[in-house]
Structures are given as C-alpha cells and as structure tokens.
Design goal:
Strand content: 25-35%
Largest sheet: 8 strands, mixed
Number of helices: 6
Number of strands: 8
Length: 192
Amino acid sequence: MRKVVVYELISLDGVAENPDQFITEWDDVMQAQLNRMIATQDDVVLGRRSYEEWARFWPTSDVQPFADFINGVDKHVVTSRPLDPPWSHATPVSGEPAEVVRRLRIEPGRDIGIHASLSVARSLLTAGVVTNLHLVVAPTVVGGGHLLLAGLPPMRLTLRESTTSPSGYLILDFDVAARSDELATVLPGADR
C-alpha cells in the first residue's frame, strides 16, 4: 500500500501557518531532503486554502525543483466548490480527507504527499492514515498561530532520521508507528 507523507515547516513552538515568517533561510541540506521526498510522490492532497494560494504562485514560479514537481503532479483538492483559479492536474474531491486518501492508497502509484494544508494534515493524522511525518523545525519561537499538532489524539512516532542543517534548522523524519486508536489501548489514560 502507498505511503502517505506529511511535510510541514514549523517553528520551534509548533506554529505551522505562514512559514515565511520563520523559515528565513533555505540551505542545501534542507533542499536535498525536500528533493528526496518529492522524488517519491506522484499524488498530492491539498486543502482549499492552500490550493488557492499555491495556484496563484506555483504555475509561474521558477523555484526548482518544487515548481516542476507541484505543477506536474496530480493534485487532489478537498473542496465542495469548483477550483478557481484553474491549475493543471488539479481535481476537486469531496468528502473527508481520510476517505480521499484511503481511496488513493489502494490505487497504483507512488507516495501521496500532504504539503502545507494544515487542516488536511491534522485530519489525516487524527484518522491514522499518515505513514510518515517530515518536519523542518525553525530555530524560532513565533509566539502564536495555528499549531500543527495541537488537539491531536495520542500517537506514537518513530524517529527515522534527524539532521541539523547548516542554517540551524532541525530536519526530522518520523514513521507514524501507531494510530491514535491503537495507542489508546497501550497508554493508560490516553482515552481521557
């Protein structure tokens, strides 16, 4: 079955919205990690807001190799409205994000990527369908904003790799080893 890979840029205090505020440098180590990850993906699931922002930026961007990747990959946008502006290889899909991903996972293909789209990432983590979590943690405390992991049920992560980039960013690669409902039977009081 295909992997479901969440990739997020977060601050040290867990804020994941507006990463341009705290990701102020991008070095070769960070780029190499992103390149390795996107090379394994042929589908991406986006939320409506991320789609609208990205559809205005990426089609004309020369930020490589992500521009070629995101413009060419099949994009499944969780929304009940028509997509505006239009973007090549983008399809609106209705329903819960977890159901969309479960359908994609049984189709042939490579990894399924979740980039930005915080509400989609949180929904998929809560539903237990994420297999890998990649985080780029900035050495910055933002002090407020939408947190990636706030409100999630208990889950077990297994650290596969950790790297500190030359710019001081921590790059973490986790396997999501146990879904929240499985972990509740392992950790006393986890269901409270």
